[in-house]
Amino acid sequence: MEAHLLEWLHLAIRWVHVIVGIAWIGASFYFVWLENNLDRQVKNQELAGELWAIHGGGIYHLQKYKLAPATMPKHLHWFKWEAYSSWISGVLLLSVVYYLNAATYLMMPGSSVSPEMGVFIGFGSLFVGWIVYDLLCKSPLRHQPLLLGMALMLFLTFVSWGFSQFMTGRAAYLHVGAIIGTMMVGNVFFVIMPAQRNLVGAIEASTTPDPALPKNGLLRSRHNNYLTLPVIFIMISSHFPSTYGHEWNWIILLGLSIVSVAVRHYFNTRHNSQQFLWVLPGAVLALLVMAYVTVPSIPSANDKSVIGNATQKVSNVTADQAFAVVATHCAACHATAPTHAAFATAPAGVIFDSVKDIQRHKDGIYLQSVVSNIMPLGNSTGMTQDERDLLGLWISQGAKLK
Ligand code: HEC
User: Fold this and answer.
1) Residue 32 CA to ligand 1 centre (angstroms)
2) What separation in angstroms does the CA of 248 have from each of 131, 174, 226, 290?
3) Positions in the chain whose pLDDT score sits under 50
4) Which residues line ligand 1 at a C-beta cut-off of 6 Å?
């Protein structure tokens, strides 16, 4: 019952998180696009540019002011709650998924760090991350956007490597994402909003706005724009065990981040020039290379390096032997009626009730439990390497039923 309610709570929070996240990133993409597509050849001296668009059966005429209209409009729309609600729902999601059951979801199996300490470090890192980033942006590096970006990437890679030493791959990735998300929302709350309030306040009081503030705001909103694609990958990363479950998971994350930031750069600049067009085929190539270097080695029946232990003990693994391992280590969760308290229904819909079931899921078993140790979750059932080898051998021998 409790597990069932928790699942629905999880569902509600995740749903909200994705909705408000779409609203936030969608608005961010839209305004960058708007800025890049403004027609700057306007007669009206007050305007920086204008743009005509058609959408949903209506024609829109948008105008951007150099500073502000002579009288401020009664309703000026601010875009901030998309950002704040993304962060709040994100922290709730992090808590429901990773902190309520930290021993299973957060901590790497066999880690010497306690789950409480893991939660403390994980949650604390959101704030430390913001402080480090904010200091970087205020340091002399702020005059060198490329160097600043590289310093930030270095910092996040260090954090990602650090997390991967004691957290599960999924949790490590998600925490890097949460740190980036916190930087982005911090930019909105601490830098962009105050700059906008200063601007509007100055216009209403007919004084000159502080010129440094919008400049800072622009820098931070650029950062947010570049950070969106890596964050979106991290949000969906838990579907991809070959990334977070790989022993070099932190390098894979770095690779994907560099690729996605470069792609963002192409889209940000393509209105002025196509000089970064090469990024697109480059990105495809980079993904192919990453797919290639992360390919799990499929052991043959005689491959002693991967399944050496198993071959020393048994040369031929029967389906019953393989099923016995799965029944011991997986069935508490992956059954039509799980006995594990945390699950009301089989996680990911994966059920191992019979030998036929494990044959059908052999690829999943191979990825999750043989070439990586993602499953059993948190190795809560204490699966040994010998048992993983045995499953690997059964699969490499063709996963035969008899
Ligand atoms: C403590 C509970 C638990 C145990 C024990 C467990 N799993 Fe899982 N398993 C999960 C959860 C939770 C998920 C869903 C993960 C997610 O959200 O993507 C999952 C997902 C899976 C998936 C699907 C992954 C995907 O991305 O589609 C496979 C395959 C799998 N487990 C195999 C195994 C095998 C094999 C074992 C035993 C060696 C095992 N599991 C033991 C909880 C468990």
Assistant:
1) 40
2) 27, 16, 24, 11
3) 301, 305-306, 308
4) 104, 238, 241, 326, 329-330, 332-334, 340, 347-348, 350, 361, 364-365, 368-369, 375-377, 380-381, 383
